[in-house]
């Protein structure tokens, strides 16, 4: 009777009883062997990619829950998609509780790694690089989780994405930390998502460093509850190389942190240096829209204490020469279009466009020094960030 009870308890646990390790080595047939392992894996299995250079000619996909895909480091295990056929992503994940760690993708024809509807996903020490540098022909997104609850991105590095290096969209409970976004159009972008923590990252040499957007017409609406804190946002001065028609094609070179049409965003303890258009920009959505669910205004945006260095000295704005002269050689660090609601800690220098309606256009700008009230109380941090249990996977 004791044996039967023990067996029943074992079967009742969520942990797999016979988890396997699938070891994959580079070389001839690596494409087929790796994709076969991704298909045949069972929940709890680990796919281990040995160190080396993998030449892949097609995208990979994973649709099995609770699988770990592990390499020998972002410089040790390199999945090279330079000769990839078609324009799909390098790796597509559509299952839950997946951990991706310690490997790199180079030159995917489309996005780097896309996870869709993949809850509780971890990206740890993942690198995605387009080796030819900024180019409109590069894939749009490097690390690209969408429609997910529970996203942890830690220690990643993305270079060369023609849209966003690290992008999280239409998701909830998100942490992006300890990562480097360099020479992308948008370094890090949180879009139509809630409860996101973006901290201890480096965003440099992008067109725009960190973007917090909310856009109309998407299945998941109402982005907000975002904290952007303790990031190094420096020298985001790369010319915009997004393909025409892309929403980020309108991001001005030299944007540090930009909030557009979000609710409840806190920006504090960041170092902002050499972002020539604006270290911090808070604006409404500028285009016309028909989505009745959408609020185009930034609301309850709080700018706390940040470290502002040189910035606003070469703004990519109409009438820049006149604006710079009016403000004594450089624009103040915080730019607000005047719409929605903005709060700043005392002593925050800024300027306002003083627009009176959404979509009015830059010809309606009436610039003046920023006048914004101080926050009425503490920012509500409750429930912001990825679930704590995701950390256990990267110990």
Task: Give the secondary structure arrangement, pairings included.
Layout: H1 2-12, E1 21-24, H2 30-40, E2 46-49, E3 52-55, E4 60-62, E5 68-70, E6 77-80, E7 91-93, E8 99-106, E9 113-116, E10 121-129, E11 141-146, E12 149-154, E13 157-159, E14 164-169, E15 172-177, E16 180-182, E17 186-191, E18 194-199, E19 202-204, E20 208-213, E21 224-229, E22 232-234, E23 255-260, E24 263-268, E25 271-273, E26 278-283, E27 299-303, E28 307-308, H3 320-326, E29 334-336, E30 342-344, E31 350-352, E32 368-369
Parallel strand pairs: 1-2, 2-5, 3-6, 4-7, 5-8, 6-8, 7-9, 8-10, 9-11, 10-12, 10-13, 11-14, 12-15, 13-16, 14-17, 15-18, 16-19, 17-20, 18-21, 19-22, 20-23, 21-24, 22-25, 23-26, 24-27, 25-28, 26-29, 27-30, 29-31
Antiparallel strand pairs: 31-32
Largest sheet: 20 strands, parallel
Instruction: Calculate Rg over CA atoms.
Output: 22 Å
Could you tell me the CATH topology label: Pectate Lyase C-like
Spans of 5+ residues with little confidence (pLDDT < 50)? 1-15
CATH architecture: 3 Solenoid
């Amino acid at each position: 009777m004791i044996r039967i009870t023990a067996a029943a308890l074992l079967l009742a646990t969520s942990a797999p009883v016979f988890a396997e390790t699938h070891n994959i080595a580079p070389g001839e047939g690596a494409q087929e062997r790796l994709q076969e392992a991704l298909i045949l894996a069972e929940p709890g299995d680990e796919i281990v990619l040995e160190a080396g250079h993998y030449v892949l000619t097609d995208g990979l996909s994973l649709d099995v829950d609770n699988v770990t895909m592990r390499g020998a480091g972002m410089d040790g295990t390199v999945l090279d998609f330079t000769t990839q056929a078609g324009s799909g992503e390098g790796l597509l994940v559509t299952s839950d509780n997946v951990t991706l760690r310690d490997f790199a993708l180079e030159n995917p024809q489309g996005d780097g790694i896309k996870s869709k509807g993949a809850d509780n996903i971890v990206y740890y020490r993942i690198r995605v690089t387009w080796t030819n540098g900024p180019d409109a022909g590069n894939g749009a997104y490097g690390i690209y989780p969408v429609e997910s609850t529970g996203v942890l991105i830690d220690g990643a590095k993305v270079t060369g994405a023609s849209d966003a290096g690290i992008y999280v969209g239409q998701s909830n409970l998100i942490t992006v930390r300890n990562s480097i976004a360099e020479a992308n159009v948008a370094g890090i972008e949180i879009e139509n998502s809630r409860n996101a923590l973006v901290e201890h990252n480096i965003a440099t040499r992008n067109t725009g460093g960190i973007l917090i957007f909310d856009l109309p017409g998407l299945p998941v609406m109402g982005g907000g509850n975002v904290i952007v804190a303790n990031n190094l946002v420096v020298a985001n001065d790369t010319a915009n190389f997004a393909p025409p028609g892309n929403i980020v094609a309108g991001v001005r070179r030299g944007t540090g942190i930009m909030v557009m049409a979000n609710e409840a965003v806190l920006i504090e303890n960041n170092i902002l240096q050499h972002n020539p258009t604006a270290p911090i920009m808070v604006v409404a959505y500028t285009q016309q829209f028909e989505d009745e669910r959408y609020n185009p205004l930034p609301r309850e945006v709080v700018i706390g204490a940040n470290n502002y260095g040189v910035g606003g000295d070469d703004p990519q704005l109409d009438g820049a020469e006149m604006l710079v002269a009016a403000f004594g050689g450089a624009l103040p660090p915080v730019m607000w279009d005047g719409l929605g609601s903005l709060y700043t800690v005392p002593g925050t220098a800024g300027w306002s466009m003083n627009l009176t309606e959404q979509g009015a256009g830059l010809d309606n700008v009436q610039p003046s020094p920023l006048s914004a009230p101080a926050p009425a109380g503490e920012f509500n941090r409750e429930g912001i960030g990825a679930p704590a249990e995701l950390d256990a996977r990267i110990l």
